What does this fold into?
Amino acid sequence: WRLHRAARAEPAPAPVPPPQPPPEPTEPTGEGKPFSIEQTASLPDLYPGEAPEPIPLRLENPNPVPISVTALRAAIAADPPGCPSAENFVITPSDASVTMPLAIPAESSVELPAQGISPPAIAMLELPVSQDACQGANLTIELEGEAVG
It folds into this structure.
């Protein structure tokens, strides 16, 4: 978030008072702190062809103003040995968007699902080839998002 100040030029009064030191800033004047995204629980084991599993998440806003999360994505960080993630898994992003943002109050957190917003979800695809190399694989999921406020 950004704080913008606008000033309007006014004519100076007849007697001009002596200059005063500038006031101490009381609000942030630049970029706010980034919000955090944390996976709150482990996912159950994934099996080929089963329904997508929602990724349980908590989003935290450390800023003194509310924010609106407009995008929330997940991706597999690295392929497990012998198990190319792009071929074997699909991740559905959250439905948080500019038209349906997730509101997080100032200095607060929200766990998904909330406010009609779902978290990202992951599924293992059923392929006509052996997927034995994916059995027991550990997946590291990277999370990112965008917000305004």
